[in-house]
Structures are given as structure tokens and as C-alpha cells.
Amino acid sequence: MPGLLYQLRYALRTLARSRSFTVVAILTLSLGIGVNSAIFSVVNAVLLQPLPYADPDRLVLLWGANQAGGDRRNQISFTDMDDWRQQNHVFEDVAAYEHWDASMAGDFAPERVPGMQVSDGYFALMRGTPLLGRVLLPEDQIDGKDYVVVLGYDLWRRKFGADPKVVGRTVEMSGRPYTIVGVMPASFRPLPASLVGKHAELYRPVAEKHDDNDRASRHLRAIARLKPGVTTAQAQAEIDLLTRRQQAGHPESDKGRTARVVTLRDDLVRNLRQALLVLQGAVCFVLLIACANLANLLLARSAGRRKELAIRSALGAGRFQLARQALTESMLLALAGGTCGLCLASWGTDLLQKLGARVIPELAGVQLDARVLMFTLAISLATGVLFGLAPALQTTPDAIEGLKAGGRSSGAGSTVNRGVRRALVISQMAVALVLLAGAGLLVRSFARLQDVQPGFDPRNVLTGNLALPTVRYPIGPKQTTFYRMAIERIRQLPGVRYAAAVNVLPETTNFDTTGTQMEGHNVTPGEEPYLDRYIVTPDYFRTLSIPLVRGRLFTEQDNGQMPLVALINETAARMYWQGRNPLGKRFRVGGFDVPMDKAPWRTIVGVVQDVYQYGLDGQRSAQLYFPHAQFPTGFMTLVVKCASDPAQLAAGVRAGIRTVDKDQPLYDVATMDEVMADAMAGRRFSLVLLAIFSWIALSLAALGIYGVISYSVTQRTQELGTRMALGAQRRDILRLVLGQGMAMILAGAGAGAVAALLLTRFLASLLFGVSATDAFAFGGAIAMLMAVGLAACYLPARRAARADPMAALRWE
After folding, report:
1. Cβ–Cβ < 8 Å for 114, 98
2. Which of the residues 467, 520, 677, 772 has the least number of beta carbons within 10 Å of its own beta carbon?
């Protein structure tokens, strides 16, 4: 112990004397460790941290699926769920749920509140005990008796002032009176937003029929809790057995239908795991470059301390003692760098939350907890060993040779030292090229995505959602009248060019699909193709500048008293009529209450350009358009084309809605450009972070090669002076030094190119329109690496070329 304390004191004094070196070393390490800790905090929160539920590993989701493949996250019917709940042997319980928004009114301004519809047993399954009152009971799940609601803790405090007597009060929800029967505690966490659209602030009963007549009414989702000791594989086998029974017993509604069991954790991270692991791998590369830089600095410093080490060796210090002292200094630097890195990580997590909150809602809970602190300590210690190992191995116990050499670098040890330093620089260049190539691929991919024409013009368009309560606006003329009047009020606002409404806004996560039967295309009942369905008001296509390809658009005359008409997009026309004219052709769509063979026929009167509904990187889908007056619905999104900045008209649009009905809130107001940006947010998040990491890596690599060339010039001062004294020109010296640097850069570029070809394939799922071996991305990365490396070499080369030969000859 006294020996260790002595070495620590000696190391501190030594580092204090070399302040410039110490500051550079700590800053370099804090950068590498800080970005690693920041990204790990995200990985920890999203992939490793236990979900905030009781026994979360036993929570599973039951998604509808089909035997033919395709979408494996379909919804289910209440009857499906009830069968599984009654007949299984692997679940403690199964509950159905779905997203439910409600317009809440009362002694406060009307507000659209996100909530959930849940079946009985949901709260027991989620281990939720009410703070006040009770939870939902089986008798609440009967239609007509379901006008009860359980409040979430935050909503109770925000809207009701945490009133302990709130149970039993009546509140208006979407035009109906609901009785508050309970309040959940703050510890009861809602399901993640990725499963229900938004975090639920209240809960009401599902109140669905569950008999054979409603098997095809698939608009719910299911969550279950495994019995202790049951695996997901066993649960999947049980569900497979149950769905085969359903197929055999009810072929008309369940043919080809199956279900998939997936843990809640796996479902939440399905689209995030690879991107986060790629980012974590990228910052590990940054740390490796930082370690190589520090190893180079320490090697240069140990060469300068050769006489000191020789004196210590002459006084009795052995190789092990000298190596331990070198490692002690490197560990102190690593711990100091780790401490500063934590400060940087704290700032970095705030930045990550701002950049990625829309992409990863779980980032709101990111913090530097004990696991992140342990990770930082572990990588700090590993880093100290990693960058301190090479200098420790280069310490020499040969006192006589060291004293003879004095401060000069000579001999085999110096040759090995130079070789190690060059190898470190080459590895830095290789790793930097891997990151540059990855960032280049994402940049190329993002540029290709930006070039995709969405099928509409998002500029100067304001959007906002409306949801009319059916109790005040039953399906039919009242709904169409409200939207006609609201759109007319909005059209009168200064600066408004067009106004319309649509049930599903492009580039959002919402969708509406319907089973479709085209006239002349016979399909087996129950196997009709599902096409995207859009319900629009007449000016929708003009508002979003969606071009008409053939026929006509909707007009105000296409109302409920006129023959049913529809538009289709180009993809639907190609799919069903393959170049023939679809105008005048007919199709029909089924519904929950209307069987396909009883549905009315609709005549196609026009064809419009394709619109990318599911993101610019998605597939073109077949789309149907119905006039709102012939297919009324209460939920619609307003779209307003403005002459200038649409955000400035938001207040006016809200006021226009209130003139029609003061109790109807316009919510989720955003410009169409913002909607498009949100759709691209995931790719932008990965691109920005990888670009930042690659620039950090390139900067560190440039500093590394600058340090090596600069140190080499210093060590070769006498040699270069002799060359110039014998007639060498400055350009010869410049060429000599640059050649030394370019040799390392080319070696690093070659090694990095091979590594990048192997590693960039892991980016394949993040790319669009480019391959993982895109020549332009790789060529650009190599060119940038060589340009920056050449600049880093040029500075010490120019200094060497301008040196005074006589001063160089007198150097030693």
C-alpha cells in the first residue's frame, strides 16, 4: 500500500508538471468516454432498463397475423381475445385494449384527452390498484352501461385539482356524460405511446360484443401476462393450437388467420435495436481512436523521458516498477477523463432528448443512473489499460544505454517505438474511414429520400385534427354539414387559398384500409384485398396539389342524394386494369355491419397521382377516395393551403371552428412540413449522430497523424538539417515528410476500406436507394480522409522545410 500511494503521488506530480500534455489527454479521453456514456444511457433506457411494470418480462402482446405472411401486427376482435382468454393454459389473463381520444368539456376549456378503451381484467393484469374508487368491472363492459371512466393521476391533478371527492362526479366526454368511478395512482404507468398513439390519461370500457357474428370486427389489440415459468415459445404453441381451432370452426371469418406472441420489450424495440447498436458501435470506434491518440502521446512522452527512466533504472527500479508507474499515470488520466466525460454525457443526453424525442419517446426517461456510472467507470479503467499498455511495454531498464542516449531517441527501442506509433495512426485512420463511410452512406440515403416526390405539395399547408362526438353528430348529414360549414368559415380567413378535410393524412402513422371487391375480379369471400381508404371533401386534391391523371375530381354535387362515386390512384388502376381505362368501372367495400355481397357499388370517375402514405421510403399502395358527403365520418384532419406562413393562421382556424361549435377542440395542429419532418425524424436522428461521431473520429485521427509527423520531424531535426546542408531543397524536405505521412494515410485508408466493406452491411436496414457498398459514399470518405490527413501532415512538413540548416545541425 505505501508503494502504491507513493506511485500515485509521483504520478500526480509528474502530470502536474506536464500541464499541456495532461489537459490534452484529459480532453481527448473525456470526448471519447463522454459520447460513449451518452449513447449507452440511451441504450440502457431503451434496451436494458426494466420496463416500469410489475414483472415486465411476463407481459406479452398478442398480434393478429396471417399464414401467408405480410403484416404481423394486425388487430384482433373481442371474440378472438375472449376465446384465447377462456381456452388457454399459459396466460394468467388476457385483456383487449385500443386507443380512444375524447373531447372533455366541463368547467374548463374543451380539450382532446388521449385515453384507452380496456376490457375487464386489464388493471389486474397490469397490477394496478386504484388510488380512489374502483377499476372497471365486467358489468361495465355491457353496451349502455359503459359510460364510466377511470382517471389517470396526472389528469386528476390537472383537470380536477386532485379533488379527493372526484369519484361519483359526472364529466362530459365527447358529448356524453361519464361517471368517474376511480383514479389510478402516480405509480400506475400507461402503455407506451408506440402501442396506443399517446400515453393514456383516462380509461373507459371496451364494451364490445363477443359472439360469432363479430369475429371479423378486428379493431382491437390484446395484452396478456404469462403464468410463472411459461416461455413465449410455449405461449406461441398454445396460441397456434387455439387459432387452428378457430380456423376449423369458423372458416368464413378466420381462414388463414393466426396470431403472434411477442414480449412487450421486443415489440417496443423492434425498430430501434439495430440503430442503437450501430450508434453504440460507432462511439466505441471514437473511443478506440481516442485511446490510440493517447497511446501515441504517451509513447512520445516516454521517449522524451528516456533519460529520467534510465536514471530510475540505474537507482534500482526494475521493468515491472517502471511499467506499473506508466500504467498508474495512464489510469489517473483515464479516471480524470471519465469524470469529465460524465459531465459531457450529462449535456449530451439533453441534446439526444432534443434530437430524438419524437423518434424514441422513451428518451424522456434517459438519465445517468447507477448502470451508466458503472459503465463509465468500466470503460475508463479499460481505456486506461488500453492506451497505457504500449508505453508501459516500451519502458527500458537499460540504464547505460539510456544515459548514453540522453534525450535522443535511438536504437532498437526507438525503432519499435516508431513502429508502434505508426501502427496506431494507421488504425486510427482505418477506424475513421469506417465511420466516414457509414455517415456517407446515410447522407446519400437521406439525399435519395429527399428526392422522392411524395405525390403532393406540403408547402404552406396547415393541418389539425377534429373528432366529432357521435352523440351530437351521428353518422350522416350532421357530420357533413359541420365540416362543410367549418371549411367555409376557414376559407373566408385572409391568406387562405383552399381548405379541405381528409380522414387519414399522408405521411402519418394513421391508416384506414378496407376489404375491396372489384367488379369483374372474382375472389373467395373473406380473402378480398385490403386497399387504403381516404374520405375527403371536394377541395382536398387542390389543397395538397395532388394531380388529376384522368377523369374528374369530386364536386359539391357528389352528395348523399347522388349516385355513389369514387376516385382511385394510379397504382390501383395498374393493379386491376393494367393499362385499360378504369373510368366507369365499379367496386364495393364491405364493413363491420355490411357484408361484402350486400355493399353498394361505387363508380370510378377519376384517377389521381399516387401519394406516399407510409413514408417516402415505403411502398406505393393502392388507394381509394370517397367523397365525405357519401361516406360520412366524424374524425377528420383539416388541411388548409395558405398564401404564406401557415403557422400564423392556426389561431384563426381555431376561431373558425369555434364559430361552428364552441365545444369542438382542434388538436395536434402542425404544418405539413412539420408532419413530413416527423416522418423523416428517425433517419435524420441516425444521420446527425453518426455524422457527428465521424467528424469527431476524423478530427482525432488528424490530430494523431499530426502528432506523429510533428514528433518525427522533431526527432529527425539533425538528419533533415544535414540533408539541407548537403544541398537538399525545401521541396525535397517537404516531399520527404509528406511522403512519410501519406504512406500511413494510404495504409489506413486501405485497411479502413476493407473493414468498412465488412461492417457497413449492418447499416442496410437504415439505407434507402443506395447499397451498403456505394462507390460514391466510399470514394467521398476516402477523399475526405486523405484531404484532412494531408492537411495534418502539411503543417509539420512545412515547419521542417523552413528550418535553418545550421540551427538543425547544432540541435544536439
Report:
1. no
2. 520
